[in-house]
Each structure stands twice: as C-alpha cells, then as structure tokens.
Amino acid sequence: MGYEHHARHRASTADVLEFAWDAGVFRADHVIAALGLTRSTALSALDALIDIGLIRELPNSGAEERNRMGRPARRFELDADAGVIVGIDAGNRRFTAIAADLTGHILAEEHLELRGYLNTDDLPYPDADPEERRASAFRAIDAVLASAGRTRGDVIGIGVGIPAPVDGDGQSPPHATGFWQYMNAGLQGALAEEFPAVRVENDAALAAIAESSLGEARGCDDFVAVLGGRRLGSGVFLDGRLVRGARGAVGELGGLAYISEIGGTWGLGHLAEKWAREALGSGRIPAEHPWSQLPAGEELTAEVLLADASLADPVTRPLVEDLGRTLGRISRVVGHFYDPERIVVCGAVACALSEVIEIARQYVRGEGELPAPEIVASRLGGDVVSLGAVSAARAAALGIVLPLLTSRRAADEGA
Predict the structure, then answer these.
(1) What is the full DSSP assignment across 163-194?
(2) What is the rounded CA–CA span in Å between residue 271 and residue 231?
(3) What pTM was computed for the model?
(4) Which of 292, 401, 311 lies closest to 355, judged by CA?
(5) Helix residue spans in 282-377 (DSSP H)
(6) How far apart are CA 409 and CA 415, in angstroms?
(7) How confident is the model over 321-364, as pLDDT tens digits?
(8) DSSP string for 248-296
(9) Spatial distance between the Cα atoms of 20 and 103, rounded to a whole number of angstroms
(10) CA proximity to 245, closest of 207, 214, 210, 201
(11) CA distance 117 to 124
C-alpha cells in the first residue's frame, strides 16, 4: 500500500509540473480542475515542486486576491531560474546558439562562424574531422552561457538542428559525399555525455516545431514548414505530430530532382542570388537601378536582393515571377505528398516574399483535385531553426527535470 501511495504521489507531482510548464501564473483550483486531483493531492504536489525549486509561490498582493472572501488563494508559477535550456542552429558554416530560461524566455544569443564542409573548389576539406563540429557545438554553448551569466551545470536541455536527415534517436544516415555524417558528427552522443537532456533534429523539422509553438502554424495539426534559403528542406506535421520516417528523411524533398519543372532542391534564396549575378554579369541591370550598387561575391545575399525586388519594377519583375512559379510548383508537389492544410515558407528571406507567395497561391489554386493548401510566410526570420531548437530543448527538459532536480536535492541533503 505504501508503494502504491508513493507511486501515485510521484505521478501526480509529474502531472502538476506538466500543467505548470506552460500555465503562467495559476492557482491550486486551476490544477484541480485541469487534472481532476483532490485539493490535498494538488497542494502536496505543489509543495513538493516548491521544495525542489521547480515551482515558486507568489505573494497575494493583487486586487483580485484582496477582494476574495476569507484566506487569499495561493498563487504559483514555474520557477524560470531553476535551469537553462540551449537551442542551436548548427548550419554548415555558422552556428547560432540561444540560451533561455525554463519558460522559454530568451537570455542571450551568440553566433560562431565555421569553415564549413566544402572548400573553394566545392570539395570536402581533406582534413575534415567530425571532432571539429563537436568542438564547435561546445564552443557555441559555452559562449551563449557566458553571455547569459550561466554555466554548463545550469543546463537542463539542449536542442540542435542540423542540415541532414535525423531519426528519432538523433542519428543521420550515410550520405554518398559524407555531408550528412559530417553535419551530424555524432552530436547526440557527444552532448549527452555532458548535458542531462539532448535532442538533435533536422533543421527544417525544428523550423516546423517553431512555427507550431510560436508562429504561423499554431493550432494547425497538418502543415509543412519549408526552409527556402540556400537549399530546400521541409518539416512535416501530420495529425498534430512531427513526422520523421525510418531514417529521418521525410522532409528532404530530394524527389524534386525528378520533376523537370523544378529540377532539384535549390532554395529560393539561392535561385535569387544566381539570377541576380547572371543579370549583373550580362549587363541587364541599368546603372541607375539599386541593384547596380550591390556588393559582389558572397556579400550579395537574397535578403538584400529581394528587399528591392517587386512586380512594379520591370527589371526585377521577371525574378519575382520566376520565384513565384517555382514556389507554386514546389507547393503543388508538397500538397500532393502530404495533404497539408498550410505551407509555411520559413527562413531569413520569408519576410521579403509577399508577392512571390501570392503568385504561388494563384498557381496552386489552379492545379490538382484537392483544395489548395494555404501558403503563408513565416514571421520568425532567420532565427526560426534556433527558436525551434529552444522549443525542442524545453520539451526534452520537461521529461527529465523532475527526477534530475529531485536527485540533486537528495544529494545535497545527504552531503
């Protein structure tokens, strides 16, 4: 009987923590109504969570509490300072790391430049060592923790997004060139040796998680988030859950290479940069046009280009129309594959694609037997993957933070 009582208490404490995780400020009667617990069980669980530092009780000083008859109701909230979570967008040539508290409030952001996978001849570096990627992940984590005034010991969860398929165990399949293996570089195992909870995902999958929790897909169970920068990739939510596949390749979109109108997985940002470079090189851009003053080389980015591209401009109109038709074709294929309610175009270029997206909408409406999916632009910008990594790290932290802090509290008391 004692064991059953202990097990029920432990389960109710975990349930109360899960309720508090996203509840903001709440009272015991909110917990009772949501979970169906008795008042004594709910208060016992709350006191246990206060004892280990996961919940804090707030002073009853508001007007609502002053107007209550009798003893003021106790108010609670998740203790944001009980730990730190870190989300990382581990791109090919750049790591973006965000540190946040347990509520998801951002504390600091840092960037780390890398040499990437390919050299100037577009060949893998001959001395490419996966340890370089693993060490870079730790450097990015340490940098953002330092900016937040925290240490590795404060970290509860880590989320990492990489440009490669990732299965449910954080592993990537082999790739003919070695790119996927190098992008992953055994990050799940390396980080799990240091931090309590680690979740490695495909970058587009994390973009989908960010859109589901923070962006344009909130309340939508069936949607696809498409990263449209240098390369195309997608994160797929069906029936309210992230879909990966046996090897994590559900959203890779490699099948687009077999569709002659699309021809591959080059992103809208890459296509815009290629179009502009060819136009500038062939002299099709008049000297008085804003594009004629743009920097050459790698500094010529899609974000800068598309800021000055519109249907009203005869010089850039062909680019906008071409991108719109391309996005329409991609959306048509994605719509047939996954039957989503919504397609969210993500990444740093998304905010400059309003006319491109409108052309794509018109293209998709005239195709197919099913109702066309809604196509919208993300508002999360270039941080969409790292924000998704924070959300993933927070979800991973919820699964382990209660036993983790309980054991730490027991160890402290034993000491």
Answers:
(1) SS---TTS-----TTSHHHHHHTTHHHHHHTT
(2) 10
(3) 0.91
(4) 311
(5) 302-307, 317-338, 354-365
(6) 10
(7) 999 999 999 999 999 999 999 999 999 999 999 999 999 999 99
(8) S-TT--GGGGG-TTT-S-B-HHHHHHHHHHHHHHTT-S-TTSGGGGS--
(9) 10
(10) 201
(11) 6
